[in-house]
């Protein structure tokens, strides 16, 4: 399966590395020092589930260089949805599945307006991480637990149908569960001004 990781940071990086380790043809879309490090040293992910080092790793700043792929994991920041969505148009064909995995709840609708509803599946990845150094994301999760749901009007066909990622699980997730899960996890941390994974101070 040909896979493009649009946004190869703390979410897209570990997922893409897992797919590459499993034998899929993965290209990481990155920029700046991160891209330079990937090209020079490969793509290295360390975390509770071990270390994955993909070397050499396919990486580019220009999605159009990749060609049409089977699957795009869309992991950019929410405010970049429109610009990044336009950028991946050249790699989205009639059987390509695009799965946005981002904070927020409206990325699938915004992305479908650019790429068409049949190309987009909404999703949420219950993992977390950050870029510890250029070319070196840190996976902060102790397990890979990925939820997905299909858009009502989009039922992708072909080779990019979702499947279990290495070390993780995929299961269907309703739109309501997606929103409740996001709000229930993120809002309390915002209220006490602590990042996810850091316990709030004792009263």
Give me the secondary-structure topology.
Blueprint: E1 2-6, H1 12-21, E2 25-29, H2 32-41, E3 43-47, E4 50-54, E5 58-60, E6 69-74, H3 81-87, E7 92-100, H4 107-115, E8 123-125, E9 129-133, E10 136-139, E11 144-148, E12 168-172, H5 175-191
Helix pairs in contact: 3-4
Structural features, described:
This protein has 203 residues and is an alpha/beta fold. It has a single domain (2-174), classed as NAD(P)-binding Rossmann-like Domain (Rossmann fold, 3-Layer(aba) Sandwich), CATH 3.40.50. It is 26% helix and 30% strand. Helix 3 (81-87) runs parallel beside helix 4 (107-115). It is globular, with a radius of gyration of 16 Å. Mean pLDDT is 77; it is low at 150-181.
CA-to-CA gap between the ends?
50 Å
- Count of alpha and pi helical runs: 5
Low-confidence stretches: 150-181
CATH homologous superfamily heading: NAD(P)-binding Rossmann-like Domain
**Computed Rg:** 16 Å
> Which CATH-level-2 architecture?
3-Layer(aba) Sandwich
How is the CATH topology named? Rossmann fold
Q: Give the helix/strand class.
A: alpha/beta
CATH class: Alpha Beta
What structural keywords apply?
alpha/beta, 12 strands, 203 residues, four-stranded mixed β-sheet, five-stranded parallel β-sheet
């Amino acid at each position: 399966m040909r896979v493009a990781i649009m946004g190869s940071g703390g979410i897209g990086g570990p997922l893409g590395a897992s797919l590459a380790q499993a034998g899929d043809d993965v290209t990481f879309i990155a920029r700046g020092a991160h891209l330079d490090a990937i090209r020079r040293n490969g793509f290295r992910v360390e975390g509770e589930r071990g270390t994955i080092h993909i070397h050499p790793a396919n990486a580019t700043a220009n999605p159009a260089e990749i060609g049409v792929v089977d699957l795009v994991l869309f992991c950019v920041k929410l405010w970049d949805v429109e610009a990044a969505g336009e950028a991946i148009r050249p790699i989205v064909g009639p059987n390509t599945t695009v799965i946005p995995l981002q904070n927020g709840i409206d990325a699938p609708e915004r992305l479908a307006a650019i790429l068409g509803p049949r190309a987009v599946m909404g999703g949420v990845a219950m993992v977390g991480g950050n870029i510890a150094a250029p070319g070196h994301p840190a996976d902060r999760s102790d397990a890979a637990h990925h939820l997905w749901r299909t858009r009502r009007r989009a039922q992708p066909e072909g080779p990019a149908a979702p499947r279990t990622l290495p070390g993780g699980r995929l299961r269907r997730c309703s739109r309501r569960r997606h929103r409740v899960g996001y709000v229930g996890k993120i809002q309390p941390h915002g209220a006490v001004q602590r990042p996810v994974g850091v316990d709030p101070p004792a009263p």
